Amino acid sequence: MNRSVFFISDGTGITAETLGHSLLAQFGSLKFDQFTLPYIDSPERAHDAVRKINAVAAEDGVKPIIIDTIVDKNVRKIIANANGCMFDVFETFVGKLEEELGVKPNNTVGKHTVDTLAYKTRIDAVHFALDNDDGARTRQYDSADIILIGVSRSGKTPTCIYLAMQFGIRAANYPLTEDDLDGEHLPKSLKEHKNKLFGLMIDADRLIAIRNERKANSRYASPQQCQQEIRAIEGIYIKEGVPFLNISEMSVEEIATRIIQETGLQRRIN
Q1: Does residue 111 belong to any structural domain of this protein?
Q2: Residue 268 domain flag
Q3: pLDDT at 14
Q4: 248: exposed, middle or buried (C-beta count within 10 Å: 0-12, 13-18, 19+)?
């Protein structure tokens, strides 16, 4: 039986989801039906959320898990009356922080200070990643913080976007084509920026599965082609001294974090 989980927030719900996913990941043997209820910032909306929780509890025959990041104490009290098992982030952490810091919390509901410079840095980095995706442009590589390389469908694009969104890092990516792999060399446009290169590796079985989702039963997705490309690109990485990472069993968050750790890249935003 699946367990139902509600992520409830007086803002977007992203914090509740992020924390909740980290907690639920510790129980990988279970499956969870997940519901996000954002902007629960008034008694009326809180009562509506309680009705939804209670309806799911009645249907499941077991209490849903509730993970909330609601600041307003009155709204939290209403949610606490729901037929669920509630884990209150603010109740758990803010009180202890208040005691340790000796400062009263602001209790600002669903609002965050906008850092204009950080916002602009993030947007510029995302635009850079999109403009320099899949080897589309190489003349902007002087401005790149990092250039990810790898075979087609090895996770370069989502990693670049994540690095841009989360850390403001200007990441480009370049797919090594069959011609590059046959010649066992880096293209000239990459050699000029060798100090910025970072390679992504992927197991052949994983690559076959991903490519079959895009072009089933094609030469592009065939075991022979995928294995050949993997062998060739690993040889290039070793020959050219390009650091690389096997990302087969990693999430995009893990890939990005490992890249920063291994390269010493400086985050432009925190």
Answers
A1: no
A2: no
A3: 84
A4: middle
